[in-house]
Fold each of these.
Amino acid sequence: MTARQQFIATLLLGVAFLLLFRQLDPTGYQIGLMMRCMILMIVTIGLNILIGHAGLVSLGQAALYGLGAYVAAWLAVKQGVQFLPAIIAGVVVTGVFGAVLAYPTVRVRGVYLAVITIAFGLVFQNILVEWLPVTGGTQGLIGIPRGNVFGISLTRPIYFWVVAGCLIVAFIIQYNVIHSRYGRAMRATAQSENAAKALGINLAATRTLAFVISATLAGLAGGLYTFLNLFVNYETFTFFHSVSFLLMVILGGTGTLVGPVIGTSILTYIAEILQDLQEWQIFAYGFLLAAVMFVMPQGIVGSFSALWERFLSRSRARETQGWPDRSVPLLEILRPGEERGQIALKTEALTLRFGGLTAVDDVSLEVQSGTVHALIGPNGAGKSSLLNLISGFYVPTDGRITFFGASIAGLPSHELARQGIARTFQNTELFGQMSVLENVMAGFHAHYRNSLAETLLRLPRFGREEHRFFSQAHQLLKFVGLADFAEEEARNLPFGHQRRLEIARALALRPKMLLLDEPAAGLIHSEIEDLKRLIRLLADHGITVVLVEHHVEMVMTVSDHVTVFDYGRVIASGTAAQVQKNPQVIEAYFGHGSVMPRGRPMPARVEHSGAAE
Amino acid sequence: MGEILQYLLTGLSLGGIYALVALGFYIMWEASKAANFTHGDVYMFGAVLTVVLVEKGLPVLLAAPIAIAAAAVIGALVERLLVRPFNKEPNAIGWMLTTIAAGIMIESMATITYGPLGRPLPSPLAEQPIRFGGAGIYPQEMLLPIAAVAAMFGLEAFYRRTTLGRAMRAVAFNRTTAGLMGINPNRIALIAFALAAAIGALAGILIAPVVQAMPAMGTLIGLKAFGVAIVAGIANARGVVVVGICYGVIEKFIEGYISSGARNAVGFTLMILALLLFPQGIFGRREVVKV
Amino acid sequence: MIWNFLRSTSRAPAVLAGTALVLSLSIAPANAQKAEPCIAGSWELTGALAHTGLAIKMGIDAAVDEINEAGGVLGQKLRVIAYDDQGEPSRAVDNARRIGERDNCIIMIGGYRTPNALAIRTVLNEIGQPWMGVISAGTRVIEWESGKNEWMFRVSAKDRWVAPFLVDHALQRTKAKKIGFMFEATGWGQGAVPDVEAAAKAKGTALVGKETFNIADQDMSAQLIRLRDAGADTLIFYTVDRETDAILRSMDRIGYKPTIVSAWGIGVQLGKTAGPLTEGVLVHGTFAWTGQLSPRAQKVWERIKAKEKLKDPSELVLPSGTANAYDAVYIIAEALKIAGAYDKKKLRDAFYQVKYEGIIANYDPAFEKTVERHDAILPAHYKLLAYHKGILLPVAQTPHALRF
């Protein structure tokens, strides 16, 4: 079942179930319970996006839910605001707080973020209890008037369908976000920050989006809850509730489409049974949480899917094609500009210091566009540091860098990626849990034109762009010979293939300049030959390639220009032939006294402290 | 004047609790890069078990060490069963949920068997307060900051001077390399959790004569101490103790000068702000990872 | 936490199973007025105040057992059903519907917390469910702002009447004529503020200080220092045992020993934990099981003692609540006899005709058809208790009674 089929099937089954439920003439009590379950599903759908896709653990979701509830309640009771504007106000306020909560993610992550969300939840609860005139203190706000939309009073039977409608909308939003570049960007930031940055994905913006979506859904749920219960009380929005939302998401299956729906309904059903245990109720709840973690950490849907996959034996032997595949119309996809003959990259007196260590020391070099320029040197010479400087991962201590004339020193990586600088990494940084195709699709992120609204509403331009980039991604995979691996999970690829994928993904950025950090490391001889051909092909198409490499033979045969480093400084620069004969280069590689040029004294060896690479 | 002194004194005592419990988090984090949401409950467990043993007739000087030892066993079990299997990947969060679950179970077990009400733990140091300058404090309460500072120095000596301590530091620095040196990181983690639990239980026992031992006493303390440890940077014992004690004092001053109700809101907001200003914690080390 | 029985929606077998379940659960009795002979309550059975739910249940069990042994009511034996709401209002609402619609019990018994009782007001009216409070003393539980309370009755104290009782006794004992007020930041404590202030005003005095604190706070020195500096030598308390222990210790630390007149949040437990610090603290209640008991009360105590395996009346941690529950059940039984059938509406109407002598008071009549008289226990029935040697006794049986 594809994701799309699962999505539609769930929608249809869900609506059918609700209709059937109502046919059986349930009591007000039963309708109320069903509505409350649906409302909680809206919360967990939002949380699922946050945790399962953006990888951000929030233990304060109950506070956002409560914020939506209290805002709507306060407006309704104290200001006499109608149902619709009250709910919308709740959603807006909660969305703003979602953005506020996202801000810390710029600087902290993981456990630190969890602490901030816990603290947020506790602060919110404290405010609810203390701010008597506004929140009603521990008594809460009671006597909320029943919702009224265009003259129709929202009694339970009618309100049931309002809530169901909102749940369906939330479910659709989840699907539309997950299966779009926004969802890909979220998963990318969760799986490899560095690679995401290098593809032009703005980490802060992506995480803020995830938080805002989850917050607005929680806020919507809160507002709906207010008009269902007709009172709000702080006891409903405690840390314990945040934990149970988390449990619902995990029980269902983090990151799965249907997971939150299943997790929420099962947990609430089981709680009904737990009621009979009286004082053992809470204990049983904790036990259940632990049991799920041990037995089914992927959740119900996750475990089910894994079993299903194994049953179907989706994986089959895949065929690796040769690369680079010249039949692929690279020009159409990459669209290189007409910048031949210019200076693509220029550094002047570029310096990078880490405390007492000088990694890059007064480096000035020029890279001509459309050429292959190699940076070589012993370990610790500063080559990768220089690459990191150029791609925005480090900020220079001194000096200037310009890219086609414009200064880029100190700009963040995602900004540089959008300007046309792509790179690969020394330790391949793939989005391991995304498919090979999705990895490449992530590379196209910066080139999408459609907006969030078009994505959510699935307007025609969304479909067109997705389709176009989809086929181009396939083309790029074909280019590197991985066309048959498109559906495979990236982390399952053998090492050489991972390297190829990284390059294909970098090409999706349509770069003007490609930085390759030790691309040949770990490749066998035939793969290196393929790599050389690919690099030359790219240069022929007008892309500037800057290459950090140790394979001297490869460097010498593929490069137009070579710069040699030692201890962070440039010790030679020129064509491959020139550099090979340079005595300083020979000394750097082979040591003092290995080759004595006739008649010239050996240059004194200046002592440097070991520079960090 | 009297009130400032009062807030300072009770703040030191409260801060001592936070410091001791936060020290436990520090020890566990260093050994396994995981925290433990049952930590607040071993604090409770130490107090509750001691009360039960004393009620059965044991002298408190015998009951307390037994309770501490029992808590250490619980800490070890938590590490072995709930944290280790869920801490395999670098960004795993499974241990968060398993330990939260265990915390829920421990607290509700205690409520069912011990009862929800607090019970006193008699102590000669909690009978007469020492009063001076318009303020007063029970000698029992001063035991806490003293214990926290003593634990801090003890830990530092342990880490620097003993082989086991050095092994723990090695594991904290780089698990894999420590393993290659013949240190078993799993065993280290086990010992770390047991040690942390013992310290937490000690804190509970020390304060029980003043606040009564009851099953609900641990949860909020655990959460706050966790926040304290993170804000301190969870990287060194001194920082954690300093921040813990300061937080206790700050809480009291907030209660006194702003409002007692606002204590948690203001306190936690300060924590959030501190983390925003110092993303690695106030005393934390900035980690630069090679790309 | 909101629990319900919704099944998953995405797999056909699950849908079928869910449908079957829904079918079975949706079979509700056709006639909503005819009810089952069960007495059901939504109480706090787990959590920090679990002892309150258990205390209520004790009183109810004792009365129901007695009644059933004598043949039940209208030929049927009464059943007791206990639901746990963990002190959460939203669960209380759930349970109210469960009790009223699913179990269709003839009457629902209230619990400890006022916010929970307030939360279920609308639901009870909507489904027409009789309710009897036995503790939650908040005034608004019974006296609704709209005045339209039709189904909720109470055998317990009423904060609006408790406040003047406390203020009276405080005024009798204060030497400096300066009274302060210490209350917990909960629905009960915060809700009492207007009542206490109004009571003080009615007596021509004003509170010199008003301090609040949070549940689980362990140190109230800040608040007490402010009250001490304001000169208050007598304090009115709206607090419960755990926090009161902390308050007494804070007072001990700073050497502040005011007279304390407290609402019935504190009880037996405080005497055990705070020991000598409680000496002389006065508490409002409706009943005391310690000290000299009437023969009937003695028999009830014997029954509870046997069933719950207790040794001493001081183990009853919520003495007023247990007694309230006991009397409440008997009042319900009397009303049922007058009504002649297990019919909710008839029961409700019969309440106004009940005259009954319970262990707390002689209810003559128990209820009247006015806004304020859905409360059975009157201020005249209130008792003052005092701690002596750690035990809570009727004040006349302690050295702390005022000699006039």
Amino acid sequence: MILRYSDETLIDGLRQRKRRHIEYIYQEFTPVVRHLVKQNSGNESDVGDLVQEAIIVLYKRVLNQPFELKCSLKTFFISICKNLWLQHLDNKFRLLYQAEFEVNEPNSTYNSDDMETHEENNEKRRLLYKNMLSLPADCQRLLELYFLKIPYKEIARLMNFKDEVYVKTRKYSCKNMLRKRIIGDPEYQQYFEYERHGNYK
Amino acid sequence: MKDMEITNDWIDRYNENELNEEEKEFFRKRLEVNPLLRTEVYIDECLNKLYQDEGTLDLVKKIQDARQKSDRRGGKLGYLLLAASILYLMALAIIFNRMHYDPVDYASSSNSDQNEIWKGAEGKLLSKDNLKIPVQERKMVTQKWQEHSVNQYLSLNYMPLPDFELLVGSVTRSSQITIKSPASNWKIAAGYDVKFEWVSQNRVLPVNILFYNNAGNLIFETPALLDDSYILNTKDWPGGIYYWKIILDEEMILLGKLTLF
């Protein structure tokens, strides 16, 4: 028997980041997104990236109370994906696709001007998350604990490190490793290159 | 200040406002002239923001897990499909093999015409005394073919029989009969007809043709032929090397080779 969730349950589950609801959304909505992406110059990797981004966008939307759906969650989700993919294509092949790709969802379904769907930010965020999750497990854990504002001494205890000085040194080296990985990422040039030439204040 | 050197921790400390005024000033000066450092500081700033958004990070991890699970499921499905395809192809190959390479058990065949052929030949041509090359007992023919069942390797069928190879093309009684076709070493695709044609100066004596497989076992014998030709249908014959003997008046005239590919 296949368990089905109502839209309300899914929204509530996503708001609380419940694993089973996230998996359900991924499993149920991905085939439609795959069709959309593959019909429009995308590949399997793009499908995964797009679904991930769309779930994040949806999550940020549902966090803002009150969140009201005017259509089914699936339709709303697909409209997010369409807008994200349109921006992606627009960014990549501006001239080629601008006239050809159309988003057929009603405008009221989803506001594509939403800050969260801004292509550049999304791609950059995806690149950063990708590298953050590629760090060694101890680095990931250490940085998470650090940003939870857990004292160095406590982190040392939790992670069986010698002392807080080691935690501090390890934190710097993990962050450094992460920055280097991002700079070394082939996608990096696309989203961060301009920063090199921009003025830092 | 001149002795200062930027180490790995400076970027973190700068973004977290942990540098003292002197260090900060030095760092800012370096930022102005070093675009890579500028980028690193920017990336670090972005990372700090993302790490502080604990909820989204947790969500991303869970999405990644869901993605991996989905990929694994897709991968498993792919492997299952591949395995199913291989099994299907293997089944097809076995069926094909059985259809095309299953030897016909002539001796025990229920086909009445076939039995008649054997009956007609029995006791006459399978006499070892009358042939220069001894003929195997008919019982052995069936047994040997059963041993070489459909599972035998195809290459086994193409191994020449040295005893017969030496005699391929040998004509023992050329004055009595002249063979027009096929050539003594004839190659043809399995399933095609092979026409045996000869000119006999003695039309009273019947001609028989005996066929042997590459193991030297008699597999087929024509009835006594009074015509000048005989068409052999190789439809049910597996690919491989065969030898044939033309017998006239109970003596071998010619031994030839037939390769079905």
